[in-house]
């Protein structure tokens, strides 16, 4: 199996990160939903440090990325690692790179004393589901994801005068 190397993204990777986000969205059929910009990514990733990005390289060339951040489990009383996105360019799939990426992120989560490593997967992503089962991930079917859009947050926030 060819060996990947991993490195933390740096500010000059911002365009590459946006490129991978767009490619992943295209792959998932949701490219019309991407509103991220280079400036926004730069601000949130490198100034606010809201999330972290790891770049995967093979033979000196970038072949994918993972964007993740820490969440928290009150049940465990520990932080967790939440994987928002992982993308490997199409021509490099099927080489074991996904397993290497998940192994790297697992090792990182353990080094940071995380109690969990979690992510979401689109229900129609059968190959992804099969892969996650193969690496030992447990599907959390008893939980349902809920989301408030910005519009819904704005409507709901009108019920409260001020937040400090």
Automatic annotation (TrEMBL):
Keywords: Acyltransferase, Transferase. SUPFAM superfamilies: Acyl-CoA N-acyltransferases (Nat) (SSF55729). Transmembrane segments: none annotated. Residues 4-158 form the N-acetyltransferase domain. The keyword Transferase applies. It comes from the Bacteria. This is GNAT family acetyltransferase. The lineage of its organism: Bacteria, Bacillati, Bacillota, Bacilli, Bacillales.
């Amino acid at each position: 199996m060819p060996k990947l190397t991993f490195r933390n993204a740096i500010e000059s990777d911002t365009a590459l990160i946006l490129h991978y986000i767009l490619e992943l969205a295209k792959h998932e059929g949701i490219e019309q939903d991407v509103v991220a910009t280079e400036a926004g990514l730069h601000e949130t990733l490198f100034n606010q440090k809201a999330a972290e990005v790891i770049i995967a390289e093979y033979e000196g060339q970038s072949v994918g990325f993972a964007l993740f951040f820490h969440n928290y489990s009150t049940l465990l009383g520990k932080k967790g690692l939440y994987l928002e996105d992982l993308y490997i360019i199409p021509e490099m799939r099927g080489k074991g790179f996904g397993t290497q990426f998940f192994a790297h992120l697992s090792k990182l989560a353990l080094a940071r004393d995380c109690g969990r490593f979690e992510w979401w997967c689109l229900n129609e992503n059968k190959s992804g589901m099969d892969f996650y089962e193969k690496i030992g991930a447990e599907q959390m079917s008893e939980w349902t994801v809920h989301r408030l859009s910005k519009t819904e947050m704005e409507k709901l926030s009108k019920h409260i005068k001020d937040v400090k």
